[in-house]
Amino acid sequence: MEKETAWIDAWIRWDRNSKDIVDEEQIDEVGKEERVPPTTSFSFHYTLPARHCDSCTCEPLNLTLSLGGFPSESEQVWNSTGLTLWPSSHFLCEYLLHHYHKLLKLDLETSDIVHNTKTTTGNKRLRKIRAIELGSGLGRCGLLLHHLLATLHIVGSHIYLTDGDTDTLAQLRDNVIDNTKRDGGTESTASVVNDQRHEQHNDQHNQLHHISCHQLLWGRNSAETFCQRHFSNILSDKSPDTRISQESSNSGCPVSLSCVDLVFGSDLIYTPRVIVPLFETVTTLLENRDGAEFRQRSHLDGTATKTKPIFLMSHSDRREGSSVTLKMVLEGAEIAGLKSEILQEIVTEEIYIIAFRI
């Protein structure tokens, strides 16, 4: 069972840490009596792209996310900044929505095997994606990506939503439950409005798309522990993708798997003190389990392609309280051994979408 450290991000400003450890499943039970219920509901509407399947022609889907939280000026936010929404999350969501295909290297592949069951020859599928959101807050960006991957039927995908703040984590878990539906063990996108013709088709895939919430305090040691806990069984995975990779390895093609395909987050750096631990976390997550810089993707013909994982971050150069400039961020990344690329600049908001790679 996972353990969590009682911690709120205001302690960074107070120069305080906590070593109180509690059981993850007890967090909600203990906190419900003490937690102030959210006073605000944030709603967002997105149009998710359609994917053409063999069994039907899918139309674009409308997604509504409803997130409980607090106004930015509330006392709760002063203690836990993740309990509200910040401007950068909007632009990161837009970037994910319009550039997901390029970011995740989603190429349609042809296979006769899907989850160990025979299917029609020529059935198109997408490789599973593992992604980690840092500083998830109320879960806007992570939930959007989760619904996006589920809509595209990317079988076996898993989105890990993480935050360090225990108060924020409690609200994050509530928001994830409210924006997903569990019926008979099957997770479905309850807030996605589907054409009735596609509901049954989509339900068959929803159980194969996972989202979960975890505490991740920043720093190399914490990130290594996180990877060991959640990804230690990657090479022993018996899924078709891994089995094919192992066969390629036996034929002389070196195989190595990174923890994730994508690490992402918005409005993460609100004080200079978090720059070093943030990039320690990022480099640990992007590094390969056996030291390589890429995730090996093996195709059915035995060939392989190398895909470097990426850290995608939206950063605001103008934030009340403590200013962390773009220059400070890029210098911190360079010291950590990361290469950076500014993908988009929202000049009026002084917000940047930045990609970091090893």
Keywords:
Rossmann fold; 7-stranded mixed β-sheet; alpha+beta; 358 residues; globular; 25% strand; single chain
Please describe the biggest sheet, giving its number of strands, its sense, and whether it closes into a barrel: 7 strands, mixed
Q: Ends: how far apart? A: 32 Å
Q: Would you identify the CATH architecture? A: 3-Layer(aba) Sandwich
The proportion of residues in beta strands is: 25-35%
Domain module count: 1
Please characterize this protein's 3D structure.
By secondary structure, this protein is α+β, with helices and mostly antiparallel strands. It has a single domain (3-357), classed as Rossmann fold. Helices cover 33% and strands 25% of the residues. It contains 11 helices and 20 strands. The strands form 7 sheets. It has a 7-stranded mixed beta sheet with strand order 14-10-9-15-18-20-19, sandwiched between helices. A hairpin with a 2-residue loop joins strand 6 (113-114) and strand 7. Helix 4 packs parallel to helix 5 (140-151) and helix 8 runs parallel beside helix 10 (275-286).
Write the layout of secondary structure elements.
Elements: E1 3-5, H1 10-14, E2 21-23, H2 24-34, E3 40-48, E4 61-69, H3 75-79, H4 87-103, E5 109-110, E6 113-114, E7 117-118, E8 124-125, E9 130-133, H5 140-151, E10 158-163, H6 166-178, E11 181-183, E12 186-188, E13 192-193, H7 196-206, E14 210-215, H8 220-231, H9 240-250, E15 262-266, H10 275-286, E16 295-298, E17 304-307, E18 310-316, H11 326-335, E19 339-346, E20 351-357
Parallel strand pairs: 9-10, 9-15, 10-14, 15-18
Antiparallel strand pairs: 1-2, 3-4, 4-13, 5-8, 6-7, 11-12, 16-17, 18-20, 19-20
Helix pairs in contact: 4-5, 8-10
